[in-house]
Design a protein that fits this description.
The protein is an all-alpha fold and 276 residues long. The protein has a single domain, classed as Up-down Bundle (Substrate Binding Domain Of Dnak, Chain:A, Domain 2). It is built from 5 helices and no strands. It comes from Emiliania huxleyi. This is Sorting nexin/Vps5-like C-terminal domain-containing protein.
Length: 276
C-alpha cells in the first residue's frame, strides 16, 4: 500500500496579512499626547476628520450614481409610454384615431418628462461630484495643517527629551570627575601632576558636554514656544478657514441641487399643462 506523506494532507492556509493601520491612528500614535498645544488643535482636527469621513461617503455615493447614469440612456426611469408612440405611428394601431392621437400625445409628454428627469439627474450628479470633491479638498488641507503642526511639536519634544537625557548623563559624569580630581590632588607627589591633568581634561570635556546639552535643550524649548505661541494660532486660523470654505462648498452644492430640482419641477409642470 502506497504511503502518503501526511504533510500532503494539510490544508493550505492562506497567509493572513494584518491590515495597515488607518492613517489617522498611525499619526496619532506617532505624535502621542503631551505636546502642550492649544486644545483647539485636537478638537478642530477631530471635527475636520468627521467632515472628511462624511464627505467620503457622499462622494462615493454620487460617483456611483453618475456611473449608473452614464451607462443607462433612459436615466433609470421606467416609462413605457414613449414606446407606444412607435406602435401608433407604424400603422399597426387598430383603435379609434382619436385614441391613437391621445396615446401619441401622452407618449410625447412622458418622453419630455423623462428627458427633463435625465438632464436634472446628470446635472445634479456632475455638480455634486464637483462641489463635494472641492469640499473634501478643503478639509484635507485643514487636517494636513494641523497634523503638520503636531508633527513639528512632536519632533521638538523628542529633541528636548534627548537633550535632557544628555544633560543628566553629563552632570553625573561631572560629579564623578570632580571626585576623581579630588583624589588626584591627594595622590603622591610623583603621580599627582599627571592624574590632575588627566582629571582636569576629562572634567573640561564634561563641562563642554553640559554646555552643549543645555544649548540643545534651550533651542528645543524655544522651538516649542514658537510653535505654541506663534505657529499654532496661524495654523488654527488656516484650519478654521478650511472649514468655512468646506461649508461654503456644501452650501453651493445644496443650492445647485435645489435649483436643478426646482427647474425639473417647473419643466414637469409645463409639460403637464401642455395639451397633447
Amino acid at each position: 500500500k502506497r504511503q502518503v506523506n501526511p504533510l500532503c494532507r494539510r490544508r493550505q492556509v492562506p497567509l493572513q496579512l494584518s491590515p495597515s493601520p488607518h492613517p489617522d491612528c498611525a499619526h496619532d500614535k506617532r505624535v502621542g499626547d503631551g505636546l502642550g498645544l492649544d486644545p483647539r488643535v485636537g478638537e478642530t482636527k477631530a471635527r475636520l476628520r468627521r467632515w472628511r469621513d462624511c464627505l467620503d461617503g457622499a462622494v462615493a455615493m454620487y460617483a456611483k450614481h453618475a456611473s449608473e447614469l452614464s451607462s443607462d440612456t433612459k436615466g433609470r426611469l421606467a416609462l413605457v409610454m414613449p414606446e407606444l408612440d412607435d406602435w401608433v405611428s407604424e400603422g399597426a394601431w387598430i383603435g379609434a384615431p382619436a385614441v391613437g392621437g391621445a396615446v401619441r400625445g401622452e407618449a410625447a409628454r412622458l418622453s419630455a418628462i423623462a428627458d427633463l428627469v435625465r438632464t436634472a439627474r446628470e446635472k445634479v450628479a456632475d455638480g455634486s461630484a464637483r462641489e463635494l470633491h472641492a469640499a473634501r479638498q478643503c478639509v484635507t488641507v485643514g487636517i494636513a495643517e494641523l497634523q503638520g503642526l503636531e508633527t513639528l511639536a512632536c519632533s521638538a519634544c523628542k529633541e528636548r527629551d534627548v537633550a535632557a537625557r544628555a544633560l543628566r548623563r553629563a552632570l553625573t559624569a561631572r560629579t564623578g570627575l570632580e571626585e576623581e580630581l579630588a583624589r588626584a590632588r591627594a595622590a603622591g607627589n610623583k603621580r599627582r601632576a599627571a592624574l590632575v591633568a588627566k582629571a582636569e581634561g576629562a572634567l573640561y570635556s564634561a563641562e563642554s558636554d553640559i554646555f552643549s546639552a543645555e544649548d540643545l535643550r534651550r533651542r528645543a524649548d524655544e522651538r516649542l514656544r514658537q510653535l505654541h505661541d506663534e505657529e499654532a494660532p496661524t495654523v488654527l486660523r488656516a484650519a478654521d478657514k478650511a472649514l468655512i470654505e468646506c461649508e461654503a462648498r456644501l452650501s453651493a452644492w445644496a443650492a445647485l441641487v435645489r435649483a436643478e430640482y426646482a427647474r425639473l419641477a417647473d419643466g414637469v409642470s409645463v409639460s403637464l399643462d401642455v395639451q397633447p
